[in-house]
Every structure is written in structure tokens, then in C-alpha cells.
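Q: Can someone sanity-check these two? First one:
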Amino acid sequence: MRLSNLTRPFWRPVLLDAVFIVIASFAACAGGNLLSAEDLAAPGVLERNLADIRIVSGAQNAASEQELLSADRALIQAIATNDRLAAARLLDPEFTWIDRDGRSRAKSDLVNRIGLLSASPDANITLQNYGRVVLLTGTHRLTPDNASALFARVWVRLPSGWRLLLYQETAPTDFSVPADLSAKDARYGVTRVQWPAPCDNPCASLPYKPLSSDAQEIVASFMSGEKAVFDGDADAASRILGDDVLFVTPDRAQPTDKAQRIAAMRNFRPTGQVDQPPAVASMALWVFGNAAVMSADEERPSGEMLRATRLWAKRDGQWQLAFSQQTLVQ
């Protein structure tokens, strides 16, 4: 059974952003919760600077990255102190949190329960800068059971400043998967299925209509990449994947990089078997210059549901996949 389609417009509602900012700013002023330089330097705020962060790709801009880290630090502080007004200012109107169980919550569901986002201090933080989109990834432990999780926070730069668009957590459920990625699909963690196995969705069609030329190109790249997986075409897949791409799945304790992904495709291709990528049940896409954020609900051939976040970067005129994270819906 598929999850109900998520309806998110491709064109960002600028008017809604403006109205929200005015209301949130007024409320924050009334409650004395404007974030000042002193707030960002408060002792309770997790201190981070660029020296603590591994920067792996993108056009590096120290001032912009430090501004982003200040916003991220302020959000973590707001969560820790249950300051809903301060947190609301930093969340995009279309913000979505995907928790470790695959539950999806919108901003309106969280502003009065911001403490749900609480976790232990972040570790192993990596920053990927794509201009108007910045990805922060790492690990932390979740309450109340202290379970380890891989997280991704996708920040986007608006005229009003940095806002968090997507926050996803994945708690791997199977640490016994062998290191040999040829035994299982490196991205989906599902055994290969027997012929015949058609691949219409997502190889040739999607339940999504792109509304701009960039969106059309991104969707075409996405479908080409999924078809390459289905066909076992490592060369085609390599052209779609950025050199810095990472795959986070619920089946593996550690992310998978491009070299591992391509090696798995080259080394394991028994006759009569194929990689069946998950079908897309719904999709949303936001484009910010040369970077784009994709969110999708997906269904594995086994019937399991996934929620996925992907980042795309335009390099040398081609949209390449820069990051993919999936969480199993429990």
C-alpha cells in the first residue's frame, strides 16, 4: 500500500515566506527571543567552527559557511531550550522532519513540540556547500534509547537568511550486512530480483510533473540513474553520480560512496537477475541556482516504504547526484 502523495509545489511561495517572516519576527520581538550575537555565543550552545567541520565539496566560502553554522548552532540551542519562537524563525515554511521511523512531520506539527528534535551532540560532521544549499551530515544518538543515527540537515539560503528545509534521521537496523557490497545492492540493501522485472517507475515515468527546464533536466538525470541501476550499466551510473556522492540507507551502518557503488555494479551481475529500484510514490523538488533538493516517498519491490532526500548539483552543464538518504517507514 502506497503512502498518500505529498503535494509540494516546485515554485517556492515567496509571498508565504515573507508573511511568515514578518509574523515570526513580530512574535520573537514580543517575547524577547530575537537571536543576537550574544545568543549565538551563549555557553549552552554547541560550539562549532570551520576547523571542526570536514568540508568535502562545493564552492567554499568561509563567511557564508560560518553564517550557516551559526544558524545551525542557534537551532540546536533553540531545540535544547525548547524555544519554539527561535526555532520557528530558522525553519523554512515547507520544512519537513523525517524521524528514524520514517514519520514525516511538517513545521506546523513541530513548532509547539520542538523538543521532539532533541538528540545528543552531533559528531563526525561534514559540510557540503552548493551555494544556496548546504548539507550538514553526521551522527548523533537519539532519545530515549540512545540509539545511533545518521542525520542530514539541508539548509537553503533565502533573502531572509539561512532556513532549514529538510531534517532526516536514519537509524540503521541491520549491522550484520557483509562488507562485500556485491552480495546486496549498495543503495537499497535488497536482494536482486528475477526476470522478468519491468521498470517503468522510476526508470521511464514518475508521478511528478517538472515545471521548469532545470526541473526537467534533474528528473531526466534521476530516471537515467535509476535505469542505469536496473540495467547494471556502471558507466552510465558513473556519469550521473558526483565524485563526492554518498548514499545513506537503513540497511547499512555507514554511508556508501561512489567507488563502492560502482564496484558493486561491476562485480555482481548474475545472468537473469536485476537491481529493481524503488518505485516513486510521490516527489517534491526545489531548485536553488546550481543546486536542487529532492524529496520522495518510495516503495521497494518487497512492499517496504522509504522516505528519501536527494541533493543534486549542476556541474559542467549536467545535473549530478550529490547525496541520497533513505529512511525505512516503520
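And here is the second, same format, sequence then C-alpha cells:
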Amino acid sequence: LGRSYQDVVGAVTAANVRCDVDQDLYQTASRIVCRTRASPVQKTARNPIIIKLRDEHKYTAISNESFMYVDPLVTRIEPLKGIASVVLLIIPPSQFILSPSWFS
């Protein structure tokens, strides 16, 4: 998964869209946390997560699991009561964690 953050920055894609590796959460050779960017088109197909460190096959890792963009659906907001003048809805950015077990 790379020896340093610099090895993996710009090398990860999910569903064929580049995603941004979180430098603070990166753990050398064991974990990559990546925040996806917006999909340029409506994505419905499942696609692998790919880490391509160089333009050679032996430096490419492809996940066994698939990634798919979905439209978020808010089903509940809590708390229902609070400060009357403030309403805050937080939807976290898309985030996934890559672990070595995902790769063949």
C-alpha cells in the first residue's frame, strides 16, 4: 500500500473516480482512508477500488470488494428538539477505509 503518504497520494480511484487520501489517517503499508470526489456522471455500477502506484501491473492493487456511488437518504434527524433558532444537519463526506485484506 505504499511506504509513505507521498507514494499513495493521487494513486487511489474508486469507481474510476480519483479520491483523496487522508494524510492524517494514512498508516504506512496497512491502511488508507480515502474521501471520494463527486461522480462526474450518474454511477450505478459497482466498481473496484484501485491503487496504482506506478504504470506497471505489479504495482497495482485491486480490491476484492466493490464501491458504488449512492444517493444518500436521510431517514431520521436527531435530536428533534433543541435551540429554536439553530437547525444543523451534518452529512459526512463519503469515506471508506482500505485494508490489506481487500486486496488479492
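A (reply): Looked at the second one. The radius of gyration is 17 Å. Residues 5-102 form one domain.
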